[in-house]
Amino acid sequence: MKVKQIIDLIKGTVVSGTENLEYTVEMAFASDLMSDVLTVKTDNLLLLTGLVNIQAIRTAEMSDINCVVFVRNKKVTEEMIRIAKENRITIIQSPYSMFKVSGILFNAGIKPVF
Amino acid sequence: MSSEKMHFEYRVEGGNFSEAGYPSSQVKKTLKQLNVEGNVIKRTVVALYEAEVNIVAHAYRGVIAVDIDTEKIIITLTDEGPGIADIKKAMEIGYSTATPEVREMGFGAGMGLSNMNTNADKLSITSEVGTGTIVEIMNYFHK
Right CATH number for B6-140 from 3.40.50.300, 3.40.50.720, 3.30.565.10, 3.30.2170.10? Predict the structure, then answer.
């Protein structure tokens, strides 16, 4: 599924990085624990998280994740946007909870890693 | 210095989470420029990033030395800090001495050292309690 379709489904807003909207995502991983994200070897992954800090963006950078969804419309800082832009990472905010976003995407055919 | 060898050093400040990840980011960019295979880059920077976060989380300060030649990358992280009393126990998944602040940053679940081990071709950890810890990560570019 394309990132722009995901954005429609989760009522998302693009905070940074429109270059990945045509990109196709097959799998997603939802976690607030960055160490857990760093163990995932899958590429082309969408990260869902409620952890809004620079380390969430750094973790995406190291894991080659180019699309991060922050749930519950949590405020993204300028520094996070700067690092995301530098690494061509798209940041999306959704008003929905992690559970709801996960459920919507699962129903829409996005696969779990494990 | 031969053009086939590169050496970089970065300083890491304990407790400064806003800067954590910068050295790992720079190493990733360098390896990309050198056309190292994607999977090797990812393994290297994941191991380095976890090691870097450990310095920020546990030590007072540290130095990351990166040596690259045509065959491999060797990263040596030397910190001044409390050290690790029982390295074997620290390697166990789930064992952690991290503070609540570190956990709020998304780390401190006791997964870092084992994940470093998974992502390094060679990992060496030596530590002296009350002095500090030295972590060496080595990855080969071609298997």
Answer: 3.30.565.10
